[in-house]
Design goal:
Blueprint (H helix, E strand, L loop, with lengths): L13 E3 L8 H4 L1 H11 L7 E4 L1 H8 L17 E7 L10 E4 L5 H9 L1 H18 L24 H19 L7 H17 L1 H9 L8 E7 L10 E8 L6 E9 L12 H7 L1 H18 L3 E8 L2 E9 L4 H14 L4 H7 L6 H4 L2 E2 L6 E5 L1 E4 L2 E7 L2 H9 L4 E5 L7 H6 L2 E4 L7 H9 L3 E3 L5 E3 L4 E3 L5 E3 L3 E5 L4 E4 L4 E2 L5 H13 L3 E5 L3 H9 L5 E5 L9 H10 L3 H26 L4 E4 L13 H11 L3 H11 L11 H6 L1 H19 L9 E4 L5 H22 L6 E6 L2 H5 L1 H5 L4 E4 L1 H9 L10 H6 L16 H15 L4 E4 L7 H9 L4 E4 L4 H15 L10
Parallel strand pairs: 13-14, 14-15, 15-16, 23-24, 23-30, 24-25, 25-26, 26-27, 27-28, 28-29, 29-30
Antiparallel strand pairs: 1-2, 2-5, 3-4, 3-5, 6-7, 6-8, 8-9, 10-22, 11-21, 12-16, 13-20, 17-18, 18-19, 20-21
Helix pairs in contact: 3-7, 4-5, 5-6, 9-10, 11-12, 11-17, 12-17, 17-32, 18-20, 19-20, 20-24, 21-22, 24-25, 31-32
């Protein structure tokens, strides 16, 4: 290396830990910053100095060692520790006991005993030789004749022999005597730590953890607390919150100093209180002071030497998702952080742990298949292969897991009856996934390595096991795992800190959060989650009720419009009753009702047996039923006769639904303090002329119902934007509608040219190989789909400044997608009921950040 390549040590290379705010995190690292803060708070942190990032870089490249303001004549030992800007990036191991030499050894022996001092010196030489001089641990295996394995407690004579042997080995391997000057030891250790940080392998590892390529490292040189002495001594960890629940709970592990053969095991709180009550009281005070001063719950690393306490480090308490909520709320309530900071600290996705039962992390798992975790939570039940079997078992009080190749609308009743759903095919936006999320059911889709044998009534696993109907299985919809048996569960928890945090979120957010709810039961569930309304009611799901499905099929099988109207007249009071109940449940909150969307063939049975049963129920020739089914069949039904196309070609269907909506609204408004303002949504629009045709008929129905009921009615008409053309022509659509609601499931499907039901087969490969950053059906694609939404929002509001913008696809429950909607100026997002709390917190975070909100970074 040329002299000009050596970076000089900067003038501000070294600073004392008691320098307060001058110990900046971006210059000296997070650990140094934190120790300086703890020192300033009055905690018993041992004095020391810290070398800056620039100084460490200089040392790594051979630059000069700066002068350190340390007293080496006071019989003190020192420790060198790494201080990266973020602890998560890792760093070289600490090097302890710096300052031990021949002069120091007798003084140390006088304090802690000759044998203990000799053991410490032997350990220091070996550790220093490995960490600084580059010797291998195996080099010290040659001393087994002096210190046999299993005999750690040697007499002083044997220890002196061992010490001499290690000194000799060091000299032989390095060509120089072991350094006796403490400053030489510190310089060697500092250069070793700096070079280890800058090694290519270390750089790769920390970049994998999210560190920038040129991340800096500070080096702390601090007085070392031995944790040993003539009096009560040792080392330990102390924290005052439970890592699993976040509730107040003392956890302490203290290891007294002494010979391994004679010292007791680790002491708990009671034992420490009995031997050193003042120390325990001081630890409690330190924990409270650190929490209030640094805004975090810490696990304190400490040492005792002759009863004197030293805080060595403070690491944020390890916590699971549930505990993180309780800790953040308690810190805010104590005044350690603000409510906004508490809100920003919680990953909204972690609320899933509160919303659903989960498998105990300590429970054993016999996993036999994996797929996509499509709906979170865990459930155990008996394996069933049909919706009818799930219903029959539910009637007997038997929990089940419904296993299907893929689900269809005919399976909805079985899904309601089951405790969880598993499908062989499907993706994050498949039928099973969407319905399960709406019901709050755990669901795993795309478990393509399973085989269903309907004739045998069994499922074959990849490892060759055959699980017959009735076998007890468990699914984990959070991790996408399927397992045999019933592992221990942890119940859902919706009160306490969880509820309080969401109260704060509602006070902070300025974007609405609605629910996708198709039935009165789902609306009640949504109301419990304190939604701002219903953003999507899919009316087709009301028709799959056991009583209604045959009436719906009669209407579909009708040969003439007159016959079809007769069937619709029978459906009208059923729909009206549902809407009345929805409006009553929501009590004046907005309710967006999507008119019929799926193709009509979805309401017909698919198999020969089902066709025969339908023909018998309808008292029609089976051939006629088959002919009608064939007539309705399409090559690509998702792009065929569905959505608004039904309303244009068969206007009587939408007329019946509009009448049911308006009659229900008027009925409820006669007794409601706050009038219902229903929002009628037209699906799958691609041209404004479609809207004009449907709007004319709906307006006519509204006028007729008002005249018949002698009542006034206010309603809003809007469009579900789920085709790229609708997004591009949003200006036209905004001229005749009050709102645009983006159905991002279909919009993503059509933008990408992907089948949301089949994409699960290759999506993991695409994400793993970097084709997609994320599954676009799970996390909104802001570059493509998002750009279409931005274009639509801009063009729509240019034409109609009062236009309401919403999102009603499943992306409404994804935190990053919620943030996008906030930035795009949307008025609300809508998602399945069990994702509403996630959306509420994400909307609050988006609002806080948009206002230049509080810094949420922890002090760990």
């Amino acid at each position: 290396m040329k002299p000009e390549d050596i970076a000089p040590a900067p003038s501000d290379a070294v600073i004392a830990l008691d320098a307060g705010a001058a110990v900046r995190e971006a210059v000296f690292g997070r650990r140094a910053f934190k120790l300086a803060r703890l020192t300033g708070l009055g905690l018993p942190v041992l004095p020391g100095v810290v070398l800056s990032f620039d100084c460490a870089r200089s040392l790594a490249s051979g630059g000069p060692m700066p002068t350190l303001p340390l007293d080496f004549n006071a019989g003190k030992l020192f420790a060198l520790r790494a201080s990266p800007e973020d602890r998560a990036w890792g760093g070289p191991a600490s090097i302890l006991d710096i300052g031990l030499n021949a002069d120091m050894l007798p003084r140390l022996a006088a304090r802690i005993g000759e044998a203990a001092a000799l053991r410490l010196m032997c350990r220091f030489i070996q550790n220093y030789a490995i960490a600084v001089a580059g010797l291998e641990p195996e080099d010290f295996e040659a001393f087994s004749h002096i210190a046999p394995r299993g005999k750690p407690d040697l007499d002083p004579h044997a220890l002196r022999q061992l010490l001499a042997a290690k000194r000799a080995l060091y000299a032989e391997e390095t060509g120089a005597a072991f350094p006796e000057d403490p400053m030489d030891q510190i310089e060697g250790a500092a250069r070793a730590i700096a070079r280890a940080w800058n090694a290519p392998s270390a750089r790769i590892l920390r970049e994998a953890r999210g560190a920038p390529p040129h991340a800096g490292l500070g080096i702390i040189v601090q007085e070392h607390a031995l944790g040993s002495g003539q009096g009560f001594s040792g080392t330990g960890h102390f924290q005052t919150v439970d890592s699993r629940s976040g509730a107040p709970a003392v956890s302490i592990a203290f290891t007294p100093a002494g010979d391994a053969a004679t010292r007791p095991g680790a002491l708990d709180e009671a034992a420490l209180a009995a031997q050193a009550p003042q120390v325990l009281e001081t630890l409690h005070l330190c924990a409270r002071t650190a929490a209030l001063g640094l805004g975090e719950a810490f696990s304190l690393e400490f040492a005792l030497a002759d009863g004197r306490l030293a805080i060595l480090d403070a690491v944020p308490v390890r916590r699971n998702a549930r505990a993180s909520v309780r800790i953040a709320v308690d810190l805010a309530n104590s005044g350690a952080i603000t409510r906004n900071q508490a809100l920003l600290r919680i990953d909204p996705r972690n609320l899933i742990e509160h919303l659903h039962p989960q498998i105990d992390p300590s429970a054993a798992r016999d996993v036999f298949s994996t797929g996509l975790g499509a709906s979170p939570g865990a459930a155990t039940g008996r394996l069933v292969l049909t919706a009818d079997a799930a219903q029959a078992a539910a009637a007997q009080g038997e929990p089940t897991i419904l296993v299907r190749v893929e689900t269809s609308p005919e399976d909805i009743r079985g899904m309601h009856a089951a405790k969880g759903v598993l499908t062989i095919r499907g993706g994050m936006s498949s039928h099973a996934a969407v319905i399960a999320r709406g019901l709050g059911l755990p669901c795993v889709v795309g478990a393509s390595d399973l085989r269903i044998d309907a004739a045998l009534g069994a499922v074959t696993t990849p490892d060759g096991r055959t699980l017959r109907v009735g076998a007890l299985i468990t699914i984990d919809g959070s991790k996408g795992q399927v397992m045999v048996g019933a592992p221990t569960m942890i119940a859902a928890e919706l009160g306490g800190a969880f509820s309080e945090l969401l109260d704060w979120a509602d006070a902070a957010r300025d974007m609405g959060v609605r629910a996708n709810a198709d039935t009165p039961a789902e609306a009640r569930m949504a109301r419990e989650f304190r939604v701002d309304g219903i953003g999507l009611c899919r009316t087709e799901h009301m028709f799959f009720d056991e009583i209604r499905i045959n009436v719906m099929r009669e209407m579909i099988l009708a040969d003439t419009r007159v016959e079809r109207r007769a069937g619709l007249d029978r459906l009208l009071p059923m729909q009206r009753d549902d809407f009345c109940e929805l409006f009553e449940i929501m009590r004046g909150l907005p309710v967006t009702i999507r008119l019929l969307d799926p193709p009509l063939h979805e309401f017909l049975p698919h198999g020969a047996e089902g066709m025969a049963a339908l023909a018998a129920a309808m008292n029609l020739p089976e051939a006629q039923v088959r002919a009608r089914a064939n007539e309705l069949s399409e090559v690509n039904p998702m792009l065929g006769m569905r959505g608004v196309r039904l309303g244009v070609v068969m206007p009587e269907i939408y007329e019946m639904q509009a009448r049911a909506i308006f009659e229900a609204a008027i009925t409820v408004n006669r007794f409601a303090k706050t009038p219902v303002v229903p929002e009628v949504m037209i699906p799958l629009v691609s041209a404004n002329r479609e809207v004009e045709l449907v709007k004319a008929r709906i307006d006519a129905i509204a006028a007729t119902v008002q005249r018949e009921q002698d009542a006034e009615l206010t309603f809003k008409l809007g469009v579900m934007v789920e085709t790229p053309r609708a997004a591009l022509r949003a200006g036209d659509l905004a001229a005749t509608t009050a709102f645009l609601s983006f159905g991002t499931n279909d919009l993503t499907q059509m933008t990408y040219g992907l089948s949301r039901d089949d994409a699960g087969r290759f999506m993991r490969d695409y994400v793993n190989q970097g084709v997609f950053h994320e599954d676009p059906f799970h996390v909104l694609d802001v570059e493509g789909v998002g750009e279409l939404m931005l274009i639509a929002a801009r063009r729509g509001r240019e034409r109609n400044p009062d236009l309401t913008l919403g999102l009603c696809g499943e992306h409404g429950g994804d935190p990053s997608s919620v943030r996008f909607c906030k930035l795009a100026g949307f008025d609300y997002v809508s998602c399945s009921p069990y994702r509403v709390p996630i959306a509420r917190l994400a909307a609050a975070q988006a609002t806080i950040l948009a206002r230049g909100g509080a810094e949420a970074k922890t002090t760990g």
